[in-house]
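Weekly modeling sync, notes
Attendees: AB, CL, MP (scribe)

Item 1: holo prediction request
CL wants a bound-state model with 2-oxoglutaric acid before deciding which constructs to order. AB pointed out that an apo prediction alone won't tell us much about the pocket. Agreed to run with the ligand included and paste results into these notes for async review.

Input as submitted:
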Amino acid sequence: MTMRAFDLFDTPVLPGLSYRDDFVTREEEATLIAQIDRQPLAPFRFQGWLGKRLTTSFGWHYDFANHHVGETTPLPDWLLPLRDRAAVFAGAAQADLVQALLIRYDPGAGIGWHRDRPVFEHVVGISLGVPATMRFRRRRDKGFDRASVDLAPRSIYHLSGAARHDWEHSIAEMARTRWSITFRSFAAKNG
Ligand SMILES: O=C(O)CCC(=O)C(=O)O
Ligand SMILES: [Fe+2]
């Protein structure tokens, strides 16, 4: 089964996925991109393997090498208004979105199939630059259920519930540079 993540009436067909276009203006987008490019972005590292996407984290950093979550530089002032608006969109408390992950996907970079680490709960993402398709899949007895959502530049999405916990997601390599900002809260079991 393959489906678009929203039907004709914009009802999510993937429970736990919400999405909105035009979450930031073009001016805000340009400023956010310039800020991300100003950061010391480093290739994402996973078990000695270097991903093509460039990232940096604020608040908390998940280290895929040792599975530790460690505190890092607090969210900078320029991210706080966006964090607060993202929290309202997600129905989360502003102070609960304790992590900001900045990513630049240069041409040829994407992100493979994964679920976000279970230490985190809410996942709220803002897309900048160019359109991307976020793909979702869920294993069934025979093969996978599949869904996808088009992420327009300047849009926001929120993953919770089944979309967050039961489905994996990925973004295929793009031909042009895309930037994203992902805010996350901690899962309650982490205190
Ligand atoms: O770039 C995005 O919007 C998604 C990033 C993502 O899935 C992740 O970092 O876990
Ligand atoms: Fe993810």
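Recorded for review: The radius of gyration is 16 Å.
Action items: CL to compare against the apo run; MP to circulate these notes.
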